[in-house]
TrEMBL record:
Protein name per Swiss-Prot or TrEMBL: EAL domain-containing protein
Domain of life, per lineage: Bacteria
Domain EAL: start-end pairs: 23-282
Source organism of the structure: Duganella radicis
First-to-last residue of the parent protein present: 298 to 580 of 585
Length: 283
């Protein structure tokens, strides 16, 4: 048994060492990626859920970052956002993403007319909210791209939204610019319906884990219903994340969610592909 345990530890240690090397490698590569323009954005539609069951395709899009790694191919944000936060690169990445997304959004506004999305959502990490000067940089990027303040939505996660005074001030600074705020992944972190009123957010995004179970679990349907009611009473609107089936769409619609996002409508698409999606007049 002793030999076995030792062996298991050796395997574990090797695994940890490999992970550390992988992270170290990615960290070095990430520095170059920013300079070489290997990061790019894809866009997922956030549709309006209309009363008659149809969708509003022009409600908005969410920008999601991707990395075209020269050797590994496409790398997703779950693999490198954490690393970027740890090594101080998240600010530069966040600004690059915001600038690229605002430039694309401005182009759609010029070229697509009534089919252009009305809202651009961009994710903001906790580390970015801790940095001073964030509001000034956001404001400068918006101005450079002719962005109307009300058409930008920055998304924060609830664990960070629940934190101290500094973050609250930073959020209020963004609100003062006219930027909309959304609480991402609602239901997964520490804050709850009872603390929603403490946050200066306009929108609550109900986490995919609730939507996945909504069509089969009455319990989750009730939680969605309660979230929509509380959000509404606070003047906030709601987005259901990760809708994959028509049944899930029907449930969240019936419970009053204003908007929906998920593979049912579209996976995240390249800038060119989402233009096609936006001008398609299917229901
Ligand atoms: P998120 O903000 O909650 O974004 C939604 C994620 O769910 C995206 O994954 C999207 O591709 C995925 N998704 C959307 N609809 C469905 C669905 O119907 N089913 C399933 N299974 N998944 C769906 P992605 O692009 O891998 O992003 C993961 C997370 O990485 C994001 O979660 C966000 O927290 C973070 N992230 C992405 N882009 C950025 C960025 O530019 N900056 C920062 N700070 N974080 C980002
Ligand atoms: Ca988000
Ligand atoms: Ca989310
Ligand atoms: Ca998420």
């Amino acid at each position: 048994a002793k030999a076995d345990g030792g062996n298991q530890f050796a395997v574990f240690a090797r695994h940890m060492r490999e992970r550390a090397i992988l992270r170290g490698g990615l960290q070095a590569d990430l520095r170059n990626a920013i300079e070489r323009g290997e990061l790019y954005t894809v866009y997922q539609p956030v549709v309006g859920l209309l009363d008659d069951g149809r969708i509003d395709r022009a409600a908005g899009v969410e920008a999601l970052v991707r990395w075209r790694h020269p050797l590994r191919g496409e790398v997703g944000p779950s693999e490198f956002i954490g690393i970027a936060e740890d090594c101080g690169l998240i600010g530069a990445i966040g600004e690059q993403v915001l600038a690229m997304a605002c430039a694309d959004f401005a182009r759609w506004r010029r070229q697509l007319g009534a089919n252009a999305p009305r809202l651009l959502a961009v994710n903001l990490s906790r580390a970015q909210l801790n940095q001073s000067g964030l509001c000034e940089r956001v404001s400068a990027i918006m101005a450079a791209n002719g962005m109307e303040p009300g058409s930008l939505q920055l998304e924060i996660t609830e664990s960070l939204a629940a934190q101290g005074r500094d973050i609250q001030d930073q959020l209020l600074g963004l609100k003062a610019l006219g930027v909309k705020l959304a609480l991402d992944d609602f239901g997964t972190g520490y804050s709850s319906l009872s603390s929603l009123h403490l946050l200066p957010v306009d929108t609550v995004k109900i986490d995919r884990s609730f939507i996945t179970l909504a069509a089969t679990s009455r319990h989750h349907e009730v939680l969605i219903e309660a979230t929509v009611k509380v959000a509404r009473s606070l003047g906030m609107n709601t987005v259901a994340e990760g809708i994959e089936t028509p049944q899930q769409a029907a449930v969240v619609s019936a419970q009053g969610c204003d908007k929906g996002q998920g593979y049912l409508y579209s996976r995240p698409l390249s800038g060119a592909a989402i233009e096609q999606w936006l001008i398609t007049s299917a229901p």
